[in-house]
Amino acid sequence: MYKLIVFVVLLYVCGGFSAYVKSKRVCVIGAGIAGLSSARYLKEEGIDFTVLEATRYIGGTWRYDPRTGTDENGLPLHTSMYKHLRTNLPKPTMELRGFPLPERLPSFPSWHDYYDYLQAYAKHFKVLENIKFLHNVVLVRRIGDKWRVKHEHVITKEVFEEDYDYVLVGNGHFSKPNMPNIPGEDLFRGTIIHSHDYRVPDIFKNRRVLVVGAGPSGMDIGLDVAEVSKTLVHSHHSRINFTTPFPPNYIKKPDIKEFNETGAIFVDGSFEEVDDVIYCTGFEYDYPFLDESSGLTLNPHSVVPLYRYMVNINQPSMVVMGLVVRACLVVALDAQARYATALIKGNFTLPSRDEMMQEWQRRMDAIRERKLRDSFIHILAEKEDEYYAQLSEESGIDRVPPVMFKIRALDTQAKLENLYTYRNYEYTVIDDHTFTRKIEEKPYNKSLNI
User: Fold this and answer.
1) Is the four-CA dihedral 109, 286, 335, 324 of positive or negative sign?
2) 8 Å CB contact between 49 and 36
């Protein structure tokens, strides 16, 4: 113990502590919000890091691309952005720490404005120079006390292998469609796509469209298509009591039992003829580059075991970003990036593996006792603010203000009341605990969509 204390003192006296931190090498996978925010904080702390990004762009899913399928380099298109999307959370909860969205923007900005914001963020914090674009990560494995990261230049096909002390996985999980595989799909003569490939409503003009799913994308895309379609058949089993005044061409249906050549038969025995189907059935967790040496159990709907919803318990030098559900995701990603940076810098020490496993197991046991799916292990919901408090208390990072959770809670209620009008509210933060809400002076008009 005496030798350890002397070593640390000498590091500080000789300026060696900074060099010791810098000697740690960090690999950040992906240049979306998780990667950009991580890059910012790692750079501010003088930590040696590289961001590997498979495309030539930053922003991940926030970059709109009119194409579907594969990109110009033959890689699957990562983005699921559609032309008319606006954020489904208000500006205060969409801001990265210390970098406000422009005041001129509406309370719920378009994807275009938000993508511009991310580009400005990357330039402001000078992280572009740390990003290796067109480098696709193909394998991450644990070798000794290092992470061996294999990545390929997508154009030249040159392969690189490098060792890192830490890996921050930030490639997101909104790109691999979760397809329901309903009986009779092969008989159906119409078109079937996933929301991942939805771009514009125009192609559905005067057609009979079936949208499956009542999550955020299902509701948003459904209303987008209903503006132009002959009918909008909406199949879902959500227990939410939506009070939105849906248009006359909107038809609610339960789950689909099977398809036939011209339409869908539902579990209540009813039938609707449709021309097109859009599955808004979510996405699968997809980390094909992680092998068993990562110590994680990966399946399409969960990644386990993770401490604090992100630290790989079996290999704590790996952090998987952004797996929290029902939360202010941008705020959560920023907090996770700060927590991970504090961990790498050595500002705090994680509990023992046994203690972390016990904490994770308690959460999993509570989920199974309620007979819920294992995927619920990633849900924050009403525990969101408590989560931010835990991150702060443990790592010493500035706490996410409780007002963020309060805004999300009121916004959720506004969605339940009317999906057409909830974006007309403007939220203004007064302090860490309070905010105001009012109708915007120029409420959003759907006809003004870009």
Assistant:
1) positive
2) no
Asked if residue 133 belongs to a domain, the reply is: yes
- 196 CB-near residues (< 8 Å, 6+ apart): 68, 80, 174, 175, 176, 177, 283
Tell me the C-alpha distance between 218 and 242, whole Å.
13
- Whether residue 336 lies inside any domain: the answer is yes
Residues 244 and 106 in one domain: no
Separation of alpha carbons 273 and 169, rounded Å = 44
Same domain for 146 and 39, yes or no, is yes
Per-residue pLDDT of 42-63, as tens digits, reads: 999 999 999 999 999 999 999 9
Residue in this structure with the two tokens 């997809």, named with its chain if needed: 286
Cα Rg of the chain (Å, integer): 23
Residues 6+ apart with CB under 8 A from 331: 93, 95, 388, 400, 404
CA distance 85 to 196: 13
Dihedral over Cα of 191, 192, 197, 200: its sign: positive
Do 407 and 90 form a contact (C-beta atoms < 8 A)? yes
Return left, alpha or beta for 151; rule: phi > 0 is left, psi -120 to 50 is alpha, else beta.
Answer: beta
| 340 close to 413: Cβ distance less than 8 angstroms | no
Residue-wise pLDDT tens digits, 153-198? 999 999 999 999 999 999 999 999 999 999 999 999 999 999 999 9
Q: How many domains does the chain have?
A: 2
Q: Which domain holds residue 216?
A: 191-279
Residue 255 maps to a domain? yes
Instruction: Please tell me whether residues 111 and 49 are part of one structural domain.
Output: yes
Which value, to the nearest 10 degrees, does the dihedral of the CA atoms of residues 266, 228, 216, 175 take?
90
